[in-house]
Design a protein that fits this description.
About 40% of the residues lie in helices and about 15% in strands. By secondary structure, it is an alpha/beta fold. The longest helix is centred in the C-terminal third of the chain and has 24 residues. The protein binds pyridoxal-5'-phosphate.
Length: about 450
C-alpha cells in the first residue's frame, strides 16, 4: 500500500483520510466532502498545513501545547528514554525513574497536601480513576453509602463512559446510554447565558447554593464528592462570578465531601498560576491533570491526591490501573516540559506580562458590534456573540450558527479560534508574544467583520 508523506498532494492526503480515518467529535461524512485540513508541521505558536499556509494557533492544539511547538529538548528526552527503557509496567512491585521523578515533581508543584500521584494516559482516564477512587475512599472509611458524585451541566471531564457521565454535555449523554448511575448534575455559573436579571454576583451565589440543595436532597451521607473545572473550558471558557467559588468552598467543607478540581485545562500555567486552584483560591482533595502536563507532546494524565485520601486508598488494594500508567517516555517528556515551564519563567511571564496584555487587547473586541462580553483569565478567554448586547439576547438562528460562521472565517484567515455555540474561545500557547497577540486580535477582528457581513447577506439574525 501507499504510505503518504507530508509532501504528498493535499487532495491525496484528504482522500485517504476520508476513506479510513474516523475523526472524534465530527460528522465524518460532512468532513469527507470538505476535506480535512492537513497540518504537517509546527513551530512556536504557528502551524503549517500541506498547502504551505501558516496558521496562528489560538487554541494551543486542544488547550495543551503550553510551551509551544517544536521544542527540541522534549524530542531529545523522548529519544533518550526510548533507548534506555521504552516501557515497563508499574503494576507488579516495580517502578522506574521517570515515573517516580514526575510523581515527586507534581507533589512539589501541587498546592497544599496533594502529594500522591496516580498516572493515566489522558484526562478522561484520570477522571475515571477519580470516580472509582472517591467511591472506594468512602467505602474504605466505613461509609459505603457515600457514592453520589455531583458535577455540573456543561462541565467537561472527558468522553469515556465514566468521565463522560461526570461531564454535563448533553450531546455526550445522548449517545451510548450515559450518564451511569450515581452522578447528579447541577447548574453552571454561566451568567451571560443563564443569569437573567440577576447581577453576576447574585447569580454566582445562587448557582453555588444549588450544590447545597443537591446535597440536602440526595442526603448528606450519600454524597462522595463534587467535581468541577476551576474555570470551565470546553463549555465555552466560562469564568465564574467572584461569588461562586468561595461559596462552593464553604459548602464542601460544611458537608465534608471531597472536592475534585479538574485542572486538565487550567493546570500548568494557563490561568497565570501553576494551577487554576491557586488562581481561584481553592484547596481540592484531588486534582485531575493532563494536557499541559506534557504540553501535548506525549499522552499523559494523572490524579494528584491529598495525604488524607491517599492514606485510605493506599491501605487497600485499589484494583485499577492502565497498561501505560506512568509510561516512562511520557513521564520523561512531561518532566522536561515542567523544567522548561519553570526555568524559562513561562508561568510568571504569563501572569506579569503577556496575560495582562492579552486581556487588554481581547477586551477591546467588545467594541465590535457583534461582541457582547469578553471574559478572560490568564491565557484562556471567550467572547459572546449577540445581536443585542444590552439584553444579551441569542441569535434567532439555531445556537451555534453564527459561531460556526465566525470560526470558518477565522480558519480562512489562518487563525485557529474555536466556537462553543455562539461563544468564540481562545487558549493560545503560553509562549505567545505580544506581537503575536496583536496578530491574533487583528485576525479575530477581521474574521468577526467578515462573519458579520456574511450573516447579514444571508439573512441570519
Ligand atoms: C480535555 C479535558 C478532559 C479530557 O482529557 P482527554 O485527555 O481528552 O481525555 C478532561 N477534563 C477537562 C477539563 C478537559 O478539558
Amino acid at each position: 500500500m501507499t504510505i503518504l508523506t507530508p509532501n504528498s498532494p493535499t487532495a491525496e492526503l484528504q482522500a485517504m483520510d476520508a476513506a479510513h480515518h474516523m475523526h472524534p467529535f465530527s460528522t465524518n461524512d460532512d468532513l469527507a466532502k470538505k476535506g480535512a485540513r492537513v497540518i504537517t508541521r509546527a513551530e512556536g505558536c504557528w502551524l503549517t498545513d500541506s498547502d504551505g499556509n501558516r496558521i496562528l494557533d489560538g487554541m494551543a492544539g486542544l488547550w495543551c501545547v503550553n510551551i509551544g511547538y517544536g521544542r527540541r529538548e522534549l524530542a531529545d528526552a523522548a529519544a533518550l528514554q526510548i533507548q534506555e527503557l521504552p516501557y515497563y509496567n508499574t503494576f507488579f512491585q516495580t517502578t522506574h525513574v521517570p515515573s517516580l521523578n514526575l510523581a515527586a515533581r507534581l507533589a512539589e508543584l501541587a498546592p497544599g497536601d496533594l502529594n500522591h500521584v496516580f498516572f493515566a494516559c489522558s484526562g478522561s482516564e484520570a477522571n475515571d480513576t477519580n470516580l472509582r477512587m472517591v467511591r472506594t475512599y468512602w467505602h474504605e472509611k466505613g461509609q459505603p453509602e457515600r457514592q453520589v458524585i455531583i458535577s455540573r451541566w456543561n462541565g467537561y471531564h472527558g468522553s469515556s463512559v465514566g468521565s463522560g457521565s461526570l461531564g454535563g454535555m448533553k450531546g455526550i449523554h445522548a449517545q451510548g446510554g450515559l450518564p451511569i448511575p450515581g452522578i447528579h448534575h447541577i447548574g453552571q455559573p454561566h451568567w451571560w447565558a443563564e443569569g437573567g436579571d440577576m447581577t453576576p454576583e447574585e447569580f454566582g451565589l445562587m448557582r453555588a447554593r444549588e450544590l447545597e440543595q443537591a446535597i440536602q436532597e440526595i442526603g448528606p451521607d450519600k454524597v462522595a464528592a463534587f467535581i468541577a473545572e476551576p474555570i470551565q473550558g470546553a463549555g465555552g471558557v466560562i469564568v465564574p462570578p467572584d461569588s461562586y467559588w468561595p461559596e462552593i468552598k464553604r459548602i464542601v467543607k460544611e458537608y465534608g465531601i471531597l472536592l475534585i478540581a479538574d485542572e486538565v485545562i487550567c493546570g500548568f500555567g494557563r490561568t497565570g498560576q501553576w494551577f487554576g486552584s491557586q488562581t481561584l483560591d481553592i484547596q481540592p482533595d484531588i486534582m485531575t491533570v493532563a494536557k499541559g502536563l506534557s504540553s501535548g507532546y506525549q499522552p499523559i494524565g494523572a490524579s494528584i491526591v491529598s495525604d488524607e485520601v491517599a492514606a485510605v486508598i493506599d491501605a487497600t488494594e485499589f484494583n485499577h490501573g492502565y497498561t501505560y500508567s506512568g509510561h516512562p517516555v511520557a513521564c520523561a517528556v512531561a518532566l522536561e516540559n515542567l523544567r522548561i515551564l519553570e526555568e524559562e519563567g513561562i508561568v510568571d511571564r504569563v501572569r506579569e506580562e503577556t496575560a495582562p496584555y492579552l486581556k487588554q487587547k481581547f477586551e477591546s473586541l467588545t467594541d465590535h458590534p457583534m461582541v457582547g462580553e469578553a471574559k478572560i483569565a490568564g491565557m484562556m478567554g471567550s467572547i459572546a456573540l449577540t445581536p443585542d448586547k444590552a439584553s444579551r439576547a441569542p441569535f434567532k438562528a439555531e445556537a451555534g450558527t453564527v459561531g460556526y460562521v465566525t470560526r470558518e472565517r477565522c480558519f480562512a484567515n489562518n487563525l485557529i479560534m474555536r466556537h462553543v455555540g455562539d461563544r468564540m474561545i481562545i487558549s493560545p500557547p503560553l509562549v505567545i508574544s505580544k506581537s503575536e497577540i496583536d496578530t491574533l486580535i487583528e485576525r479575530a477582528w477581521q474574521s468577526l467583520d467578515e462573519a458579520h457581513a456574511q450573516i447579514k447577506a444571508e439573512g441570519i439574525s
